[in-house]
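Hey, can you fold this one?
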Amino acid sequence: MDAYRALIHENISYGDLIRDHPYNADLIDGYVELMVEVCCTQRETVRVNQEDLPAAVVCSRFLKLNREHILYIMEAMQRNTTQVANIRGYTLSALYNAPATISQYYTSQVSHDMAQGWGGGNMKIALVDVDGHSGFPNLALMRLSAWHKARGDDVEWWNGFTHYDRVYLSKVFTFTPDFDTVIDADEIIIGGTGYKDYTSLPPDVEATPPDYSIYPQYQRAIGFLTRGCIRNCPWSIVPHKEGYIHPAATWEEIKRPDSREIIFLDNNVLASEHGLEQIGRMGGEPVWVDFNQGLDARLITQETAALLAGLRWIRFVRLSCDTSAMLPVIEQATAYFWEAGVAPSRFWAYVLVQDVADAHQRVLALEEMGITAFAQPYRDYNGGEPPNEQKAFARWVNIRSAHNSGECQEENGLFHKKEQNVTQKPGRQPDGMCYRTSGKTWRSFFVHRSRETGRFRGIKPLRGFIPRSPRRENVVSAHRADGGKCLFGFQSAFACLRRGRQLKAQRD
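Sure. Predicted structure:
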């Protein structure tokens, strides 16, 4: 029983429902307990819609319900004005019928609103992309624009001088400053995760192809093959907003007729049979793709890698390295990609930055595998700014010219803009070891903290050696500063430095 309850809680994003609708907590709990009771019943049939249906079929339908279905049932019951004698049977039927009736319900609502002048033509609509409409397109606004234009409404970007019938404000990121300008409009609608609004567009609008004309500078198609995710990462809002993973569209429905490039926004496309099917169907087609939210390395097998290798990539094969535990998984995934024929130059990984020292070690390990790292400082849902330490570290990782040259950007005294040649005069041995390099010079940056206070002090550059190809045997030759005698070979400059410290401690 507890297992079913936990699964239903996860499917309907129970925590978010209770938080957003605290006054309906008892009602939501009643729905959950009713579904758990049906799934745990020992009877072979359950009476729904005045018919005896197999209990397994009813339970299977209940386990497919998500947050939107629960909200739909709550809204529909609140609109009901007739007296209900058998409330349990009525609720069971509503829960069972929700997946089949939700689309018709919202369609009828839209038709009613249109008859009352909602989008019925000749309306003046304005759009506001709060994140800024000169960058990545806002998919929700593009769908709203197309939906209104199909009904004969005039749609334009808000200009500050015109009176509008309706203005839509959409914000994706919580850290984007709010739009606090006075708006002259009869109705203002705000939405998006930036406003902590986790609802979806009406089904009719969601099914409308985007209007790319409002972003003329953007030439690629964007969309979702799947929605939702199988994970429950604490830093991701996707499970709360979209629920468990489910199909959203085919790649043909997303592709623009005037472009061969598609940016897929899926959070975990490899966890879906539908997603894998679409990837297989795109293989060999004249389209170039990018899964810009990253692929789940835990789901990459030899078969999956071969499937992905059949795609034409715009530039990178993106992975995610949010914790150190992902490093061996990513190493195995890239090995599968290598065997399948994907060029190592395409390997790229997001690095979530919370603890700078840990993130730094992940960056070094990824680069040793030949993977380009991209650091993302952690931001909470309240839009708080990450610490300067995280931002400065991310700047050093992401600005490739500074990263490759070994220069540190000074940020409020956190980083020391300094280069140090480790080769010293005889008798002076920093950390007991220096490197005699051959081939490409590589400056490794190590995070230092104060021994007294534990506070972050900066990043210190050291010279070391890394082979030109990450696939070549990665051996660092270490030499004593005063003799030049080769002592050992290690898999990384960091391991070499650590071993040097150990030898110095033994000599001392």
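The CA atoms of residues 396 and 403 lie 6 Å apart. Let me know if you want another pass with a different chain boundary.
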